[in-house]
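Same chain as my last thread, 434 residues:
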Amino acid sequence: MRAYDVILKKRNGGKLTKEEIEFMVNGYVKGEIPDYQMAAFLMAIYFRHMDSEERATLTKVMADSGDKIDLSPIPGIKIDKHSTGGVGDKTTLVVGPIVASLGVPVAKMSGRALGHTGGTIDKLESIPGFRTSLSEEEFFENVRKIGIAIVGQTANLVPADKKIYALRDATATVDEVSLIAASIMSKKLAGGADGFVLDVKVGSGAFMKTLEQAKELAEAMVDIAKSHGKKAVAVLTNMDVPLGKMVGNSLEVLEAIETLKCNGPDDFTELCLNISAWMCHLAEKGTFEECLKMSKEALESGAALNKFRELVKYQGGNPEVVDRPREILPMTDNIVEFKAKVEGYITAIDTEKIGIASNYLGAGRKTKEDTIDYRVGIEITKKIGDYVHPGDTIAKMYVSEKSEINDAVKLLEESYKISQEKPQVKPIILSIVK
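reply #2:
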C-alpha cells in the first residue's frame, strides 16, 4: 500500500477502508509516513470529509495507538464527561462531586490547557498540595474508597492524536468535523469509560460559533460512541457569555466551592445539575427527571460539598479550602475595576476576548512552557440583559505585577456592546443530542 494512493482516493471523494486508515495513522505515528504526505491526507479529509463508518474507524485506530485505561477493576457503570471548552468552564469541579455522591464512580482524566486559562488540572493545582499525578493503584483505590479521582492524562494516551493535532494546527485543518470528533472521542475511548456526556459549547467563546455547527459535531461524537458500544448524550450549551462569573484558576475553584454551597450563579448551577443528571441517567440511576431531582438533593444536602472535601483530602490538598477558600487559595488583592462609559443594556459580549484578556493577566499559557499565575483572572459582574449606568463596574480584573493590564482593558472595551434595546437572553442549555 502507498500513501500516495490513499491520499488520491480521498482527494477524489472515495471511501477509505479500515486497512487504509490504519496504514496512514499508524505509519505516521511510527515515522514511516512523512509530514507532507500526512498533511495532504488531512487536507483531502478537510475538503472531502468522512462518513460515519470512516469516522468510527479513524477514532478507534487513534485510540489504539498508545496506552488504554482498563476501568473494569472499579465496580459500577463509569460515565465520563467532556467539554469542548469555553470561558469560565469549571463544571468538572462541581459535577464530579455531585455524581460521585450519588454512587456513580468518577474516574476522570482531565487536561491542562494552552489557551485562555488553565484546564481542570491547572485549576485543581491552585489548591495548595493537590496532587494531579497519581499512580494507577492510587487512582483506582481513591475511586473505590470515595467514588472519585481526577488526574492528568498519561503521557502515552493516544499519541496519534497529539502528533496529528500538531500537524492540523500547522496546516489549517483543525476545523473539520470528522477530525475534531475523532480527536475528542479517541481520548474518551482510550479512557475506558462506559459512556459519555458531551458538553458542546456554542457561541462567541466557543470553537463552534453556530448551533448548526455544534449539532453536526455533537451528532458525529454521539454516533462514534454508539458505534463502539458506548452510551452517549450531548448537551449543547450557550457560550455567548462566560459561564458563571469567574474566569481564572483560583477564582474558578472559589466559584465551584460556592456553587457546591448552593451560592453559585444560576447559569452555572443549572448546567452542572443538568450534566450531573445525564451522567446519572446513563449510569442507570433513574430517568433524567429523577436524576435531576437527585442531583439537586445532593447539592442542597451538602453531600456533594462533602465529596469535594474528600477529593481534595485524598489527593493531598488542604481540605480546609472548602471552609476558607479566600484565605487558602492563592488570590491577589490587587483589583482593577472595568467600568461602563455609557448607559443602556448589555446586548452582546465577545466571550473569546474575555478569555484572551484573562490570558493577558496571566491566567493561561501563551506557550506550553509558560507557567500559570493562579492568583489572577476576571470576575464578570454584569452580563447580557443587565442595565448599566456610566461608572457601573462591569468586570473586575485580579492582576499581578506581571499582568499586561492595558492589553486586557483594550480587549474588555472591545468585548461589550451596550445599547438602548433590551436583548433576548438565551438559556444556558440550547439543545440535546442523543
